[in-house]
Give the backbone structure.
Amino acid sequence: MTRLDVREIPPVNRHPTIHDAFAELDPGEELTIVNDHEPKPLFYEFQAEVEAFDPDGYSVECVADEKFVATFPKRAD
């Protein structure tokens, strides 16, 4: 599993950084991101644009104020 804390990355660079990290995953692996807000827009972006994204395996949890942990799985096939 790859974990990426994007809270220190400027907002304009977050999505490209996340997309790059996801692209480097092997099929069946997961990218976990730590963000300062719920990444629902990113979920919708992945669902619409990233064929390898498995939306059924997506999860997100608010673990503290301004700390959300979301898992973006890559399809195994």
The radius of gyration is 12 Å. The first helix runs from residue 11 to 23. Residues 10 and 18 are 12 Å apart (CA to CA).
